[in-house]
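To whoever picks this up:

The parser on our side crashed when reading a file containing two proteins. I've narrowed it down to the boundary between the first structure block and the second sequence. Both blocks are reproduced below exactly, byte for byte. First block:
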Amino acid sequence: MKILTGPCVLEDRDTVMRIAEKLKPLSEDKRVEFYFKASFDKANRTSLSSFRGPGLDEGLKIFEEIKKQFGYKVVTDIHESYQAAPAGEIIDILQIPAFLCRQTDLLVAAAKTPAKVNIKKGQFLAADAMKHPVEKILNTRGITEVNYENSDKAGVWLCERGNTFGYGALVVDMRNLVLMRNYAPVIFDATHSVQIPSTGGTTGGNSAFVPTMAKAAAAVGVDGFFFETHIDPSVALSDGPNMLKVDDMYKLVGDIFAIQDALGYN
C-alpha cells in the first residue's frame, strides 16, 4: 500500500527532521510503499500573511538532506511550470494541486520529468473529468490509451480529496474512488478531505473525522493514502486543524490494513 505522509509544509529544518525521524518505523514496514510528503511553497494560502514555506531552492536542499539521511522517496507540490524541471531532478513524485489539475502547461512540464505525477482531483470536478489530466500526462510520455495499467506503468496517479458545494465543507463521494481507478491508481487524501476551507482568515478542518474517512476508503478499495502529519498539529504552520499526530496515524494505518486484509485486498 502506498502511503504519502509528512507535514503540510516544510517548516524550520529541525521540525521537519524530527517528523521525518518519527516516521521511520512506517518507512520500514514491508507492507508500505513509503513517501515523505511536504510542500516547499504553499501558494494557495487564504491570507497574504500566512506562512508559505522556504521556497523552491531551500526546499529542494531540505528534501535532498531527507533523502540522504533517511533514504526516503519524497513528494512535493508544484504550482508553476518552471518549478517542474529542477524539482524533478530530486523529487520522486510531483504533486499537482487540486485547483491546478486542469492546467495544461503545468501537467506537461511535470510529465517531461522522470518523476511520478500525482494529480489531485479538483474540488469542482466530477470523477470522469479526471480522465483528461491523465491523458495529458500519458500523451506527453508517448502513451495514447488512458487506463489503469498504462497509468500505473507510466507513474501517473489520481488523488481524491472531496468536492465542495459552496457551504464551506468538502464532501467525499466514495463512488469517485471506483470511477477514477478506470484511469489511474487512486490515492485517498484523508486529511484534506476533512478540511473546511477559509474559516475566517485561515483554513479550518476537523481531524476527528480523518479515521472515519480513511477506513471508509479502505473498505471501498484504493491504492494508497495521503496523510498530513505532525508531532503537534496544534502548532503546525499550515493545515493544523485537519492534520494527524504521527502516533495517531500509526494506529489508523493498522486499522486500514485490518480492513483490507478482511476484504481480501492485500
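<<boundary where parser fails>>
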Amino acid sequence: MTRPTTVAEAVAEDAAAGGRAPRALRPRIEDGHVRVLGAALPWNARATLVVTVALVLVLISLVLSLTLGRLGIALADLPAVLRGEGSKTEHFVVFTNRLPRAVVGICAGAALGISGAIFQSVTRNPLGSPDIIGLNAGAAAGAAAVTLVWPGLLPAPVGALLGGAVAVVLVLLGAGRGVQAPLRMVVIGIGVGAMSLAFVQFAITRTRREQAQEMAAWLNGSLNSRSWEHVTIIAVALVVLGFAALALSRGLQHVEMGDDAAVALGVPARRVRLLAVAVGVGLAAAAVVVCGPVAFVALVAPQVARRLTGSTGPGMVAAGATGALLLVGADLVAVHQPWFGSLPVGVLTAGIGGLYLAVLLTREWRRGTL
C-alpha cells in the first residue's frame, strides 16, 4: 500500500477509512517537533507544561481580582454578572473598575516579558532588558513630552514609541559596537535612563499640581483607573507585535550562537536583530503607555521562564506567560496586602526585582562575565 504524497491524498484516504480526523491534520510528535500539514514546529513538553500552569494561574489571578476585597463579587455570582446580569453596582465593579485593570495587567506583563526575552536574546546577556538599558525610561520621557510639555503634538502611544526608540538608538551609539558590547550597553543604558527620568521630572515641574500628581503616580508603574481604551492599546500591540516576535524566534535562536554561526545557517543576523529590536521597543513602549514604567518585569520574567522550562532560545511564549503572571499577581498583592494600603504595582515589582538584580549581578560577577 502506497503512502499518500500530498495533503489532498491523505485527506481522501482518511475520509474513505471512516471519517476520522484527516491524517495530514493530525499532529505527530517526531524528534522534538510537532508535524502539522508538513510543517515541523518545535515541541518541548516541559515548556508546554510550564506555560499551561502559568496560564491557569493567570486565570485564577483574574478571578481573584474580581472577587477579592470589600466590593468584590461573590464567586458564585460572578458568572451571572459576566453574562450581563446583576446590579448596576456589580456591573460597575466588574466592567468599569476591575476587569479592565486585570486585562491590562495581563497584557502588559506579557508584552514586557516578550520584550525582555527579545533584548536578552539579542544582547546574549541576562541584564539586557528594557529596564536596564533605558528603554522604559525613554518611553516614559516620550509620553511625558507629548502629554505635558507639548500637549497635543502627538498621541501618547506614538510619543512613548519614539521615546523608547530614541533611548535604544542612544544606547547602541554610546556602546560603540552596539549589541556586540552588552556590558557597555548596560552602563550607557543606566545613564540614558537617568537622563530620561530627569526630563520627566522637568516635565512634571511645568504642569499643574493635578497633572503632576497623576504623572508622578504613573511613573511608579500603576494599574489604577485603567479603562477599555487602555485594554485596546495594549491588546492590539500584543497581538501584532507578539506574532512578529514569534516569527523572529527561530532566527534569534540562531543569532544567540553568534553572527558567524547564524550566517552559516542561512540566517541574516543583522536583519533579524534589527527587526527584533524594533519589535521589543514597540512592546515595551505599549506597556509603558498603559501602565507606566513598571520595573523589572521584563528583566525577571524571561530568566524565570528559562529556568523553569530548561530550554534554549528566547522562549517568547513562556516569557510572555510568566510576565503576565508576575504583573497581575504583583498587582493583587499590592492592592490587597494589609500593611500599607493599596500600593502602585511598580513599587512591589521594583522591590522584588531589585533583590533579583542583586542576585543576578553577584552570579554574573562570580562567573567573570562582569
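After patching the parser it read the second block fine. Residues 296 and 353 are 5 Å apart (CA to CA). The mean pLDDT is 81.
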